[in-house]
């Protein structure tokens, strides 16, 4: 790491701390040449391979913007969207991959969106699961209904 003051090609780490919900490391450094101190932030890079083949850095803001469209007219707050994007990013980073297909990101968003709002989930799923006709919507709605009855059914363990 070059010193930002004298451009010396080396520096010494004095202190390291996690920041940004554990997704980044903040390091306090000192230059052995001029003695000045400076901070650096290290994050693991996550790249997205878009459908057209272009590779770009991962952006939580793009997740929020895409999901916001699906949530239009629904009782979902900006804070809800920010938490959804954070959870989706954490699950994507947990895979350990440094590059992800854009479609994989959409599929990672689906379970989180389903917990948040089922109508928005269906809107978003229609794109990322490539719904082709009404039967696809009916199948997804049927699955949601069956899971609702499973979770609300009384237990027979009495």
Question: Can you put this structure into words, describing what you see?
Answer:
The strands form two sheets. Strands 1-2-3 form a three-stranded antiparallel sheet, with no helix packed on it. Strands 5-4-6 form a three-stranded mixed sheet. The chain is α+β, with helices and mostly antiparallel strands and 158 residues long. 46% of the residues lie in helices and 20% in strands. The mean pLDDT is 88. It is elongated, with a radius of gyration of 22 Å. The protein has helices at residues 60-70, 78-94, 102-116, 118-128, 134-152; strands at residues 12-19, 24-30, 37-43, 47-49, 55-57, 99-101. A hairpin with a 4-residue loop joins strand 1 and strand 2. The chain is built from five helices and six strands.
Quick synopsis:
By secondary structure, the chain is of the alpha+beta class. The chain has helices at residues 60-70, 78-94, 102-116, 118-128, 134-152; strands at 12-19, 24-30, 37-43, 47-49, 55-57, 99-101.
Task: Write the SSE topology.
Elements: E1 12-19, E2 24-30, E3 37-43, E4 47-49, E5 55-57, H1 60-70, H2 78-94, E6 99-101, H3 102-116, H4 118-128, H5 134-152
Parallel strand pairs: 4-6
Antiparallel strand pairs: 1-2, 2-3, 4-5
Helix pairs in contact: 1-2, 2-3, 3-4
Spell out the key features of this protein.
alpha+beta; elongated; three-stranded antiparallel beta sheet; three-stranded mixed beta sheet; 158 residues; 5 helices
């Amino acid at each position: 790491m070059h010193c930002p003051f004298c451009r010396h090609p080396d520096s010494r780490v004095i202190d390291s701390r996690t920041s940004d919900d554990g997704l980044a490391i903040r390091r306090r450094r000192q230059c052995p040449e001029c003695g000045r101190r400076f901070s650096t932030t290290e994050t693991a890079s996550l790249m997205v391979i878009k459908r057209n083949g272009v590779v770009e850095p991962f952006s939580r803001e793009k997740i929020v913007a895409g999901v916001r469209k699906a949530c239009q007219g629904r009782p979902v707050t900006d804070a809800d969207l920010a938490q959804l994007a954070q959870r989706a990013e954490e699950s994507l980073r947990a895979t350990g991959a440094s590059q992800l297909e854009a479609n994989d990101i959409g599929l990672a968003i689906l379970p989180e969106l389903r917990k948040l709002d089922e109508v928005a989930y269906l809107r978003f799923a229609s794109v990322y699961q490539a719904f082709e006709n009404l039967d696809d919507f009916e199948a997804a709605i049927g699955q949601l209904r069956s899971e609702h009855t499973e979770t609300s059914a009384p237990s027979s363990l009495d």
